[in-house]
């Protein structure tokens, strides 16, 4: 089941499992009155956006640099034709659905579909539609039938299944063209999909209003998105209690980052050792980074340093006062001398 809001289609990404590549699209048509483009399209390869289009653009935009290659150009021409055809499909679907419900005002019609290819050759394809952000109808690629998610979608099912030409085009797309395009993209856009090894940094900080210590395991620069990060105690115990996990976030260079924070009490810090363990498809084996607690500052040393600094400041102040006093005395002496010389000259 899908749940898509008006803008959710631009944000939702289906993350393929390790050893799987996917080619996906997300389209949305809106009726009058939103101030948005009537049609918006986003194409994704795995979790990387490779194209986008909206109704006010002259043509779709390809967001990678491999299109100059012969097969790349062929792929792009095929995808461009599909994007423009999908615009016609969504506009047709929105118009007919609004008429069927006798609706007025602003409404949306969305679709998302694509195909997945496993390393072992297994294939999967899907196509789902939504009306006003709710499941509406989907296409079963295996049985070549439309499945209504709600009773109100049965009319749409009959319309689409009665159109033999559209049915054949849809079948060709999800049985052949999508996988062919995916294979081409994997071959000619491989630099975009190259696996990247994560970098791991451990950062220590004191917990506010507590004697405990937070240790941040910051993992960044990895691709693809799927990663497993865990805190390990004494080299074997996987920790869940006292561990906070952030979300996997994108970097500007199409890699990803993740933070996992471990809170350690002073007692546990003395009794146990801790390491951050990272498992990623770019690694031959799991990466373990051991946490070495930063030594506490010696308070006597700190105090001595503070006293030395205060002593230096006091010395500077005293020196300035002495300099000012001497300068004042010199000015008075010079003034007295000048006065004496003036008196002698008058005589």
Write the layout of secondary structure elements.
Layout: E1 20-30, E2 39-45, E3 48-54, E4 61-62, H1 70-101, E5 108-118, E6 123-131, E7 134-140, E8 145-148, H2 154-162, H3 164-188, H4 190-193, E9 199-206, E10 213-222, E11 228-233, E12 237-239, E13 243-245, E14 249-250, E15 256-264, H5 266-271, E16 274-279, E17 287-290, H6 299-346
Binned strand content: 25-35%
Which shape, going by the Cα principal axes? Answer: elongated
Summed up, the domain count is 2
Number of helices: 6
Helical/strand content category: alpha+beta
The separation of the N and C termini measures 116 Å
What is the CATH-assigned architecture of the largest domain? 2-Layer Sandwich
CATH superfamily of the largest domain: MHC class I-like antigen recognition-like
Strand order of the largest sheet: 4-3-2-1-5-6-7-8
Number of strands: 17
Rg calculated over all Cα atoms: 35 Å
Tell me roughly what share of residues is in helical segments.
25-40%
**Low-confidence parts:** 1-18, 296-309, 339-347
Q: What is the CATH level 1 assignment of the largest domain?
A: Alpha Beta
Indicate the CATH topology of the largest domain. Answer: Murine Class I Major Histocompatibility Complex, H2-DB, Chain A, domain 1
H/E series: EEEEHEEEEHHHEEEEEEEHEEH
Major sheet attributes: 8 strands, antiparallel
Mean pLDDT: 80
Notes on the structure:
- The chain is an alpha+beta fold and 347 residues long.
- The chain has two domains: 8-193, Murine Class I Major Histocompatibility Complex, H2-DB, Chain A, domain 1 (2-Layer Sandwich), CATH 3.30.500; 199-290, Immunoglobulin-like (Sandwich).
- It contains six helices and 17 strands.
- It has helices spanning 70-101, 154-162, 164-188, 190-193, 266-271, 299-346, and strands at residues 20-30, 39-45, 48-54, 61-62, 108-118, 123-131, 134-140, 145-148, 199-206, 213-222, 228-233, 237-239, 243-245, 249-250, 256-264, 274-279, 287-290.
- The protein has an eight-stranded antiparallel β-sheet with strand order 4-3-2-1-5-6-7-8, covered by helices on one side.
- The longest helix has 48 residues, at 299-346.
- It is elongated and about 90 Å long.
- Mean pLDDT is 80; it is low at 1-18, 296-309 and 339-347.
């Amino acid at each position: 089941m899908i749940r898509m809001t008006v803008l959710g289609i631009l944000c939702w990404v289906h993350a393929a499992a390790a050893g799987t590549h996917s080619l996906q699209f997300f389209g949305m048509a809106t009726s009058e009155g939103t101030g948005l483009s009537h049609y918006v399209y986003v194409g994704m390869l795995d979790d990387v956006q490779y194209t986008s289009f909206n109704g006010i653009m002259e043509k779709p935009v390809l967001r990678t640099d491999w299109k100059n290659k012969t097969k790349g150009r062929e792929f792009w021409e095929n995808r461009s034709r599909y994007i423009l055809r999908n615009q016609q499909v969504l506009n047709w679907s929105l118009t007919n659905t609004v008429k069927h419900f006798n609706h007025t005002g602003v409404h949306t019609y969305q679709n998302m579909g694509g195909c997945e290819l496993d390393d072992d050759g297994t294939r999967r394809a899907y196509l789902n539609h939504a009306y006003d952000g709710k499941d509406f109808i989907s296409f079963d690629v295996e049985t070549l039938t439309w499945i209504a998610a709600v009773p109100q979608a049965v009319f749409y099912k009959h319309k689409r299944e009665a159109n033999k030409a559209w049915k054949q085009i849809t079948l060709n797309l999800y049985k052949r063209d999508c996988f062919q395009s995916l294979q081409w993209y994997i071959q000619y856009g491989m630099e975009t999909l190259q696996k990247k090894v994560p970098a791991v940094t451990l950062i220590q900080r004191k917990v506010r209003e507590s004697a405990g210590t937070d240790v941040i395991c910051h993992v960044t620069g990895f691709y693809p998105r799927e990663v497993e990060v865990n805190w390990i105690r004494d080299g074997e115990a996987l920790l869940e209690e006292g561990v906070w996990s952030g979300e996997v976030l994108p970097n500007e260079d199409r890699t990803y980052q993740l933070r996992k924070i471990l809170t350690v009490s002073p007692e546990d810090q003395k009794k146990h050792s801790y390491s951050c363990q990272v498992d990623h498809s770019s690694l031959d084996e799991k990466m373990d980074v051991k946490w070495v607690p930063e030594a506490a500052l010696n308070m006597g040393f700190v105090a001595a340093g503070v006293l030395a600094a205060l002593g230096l400041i006091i010395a500077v102040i005293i020196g300035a006062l002495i300099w000012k006093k001497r300068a004042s005395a010199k000015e008075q002496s010079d003034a007295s001398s000048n006065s004496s010389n003036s008196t002698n000259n008058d005589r």
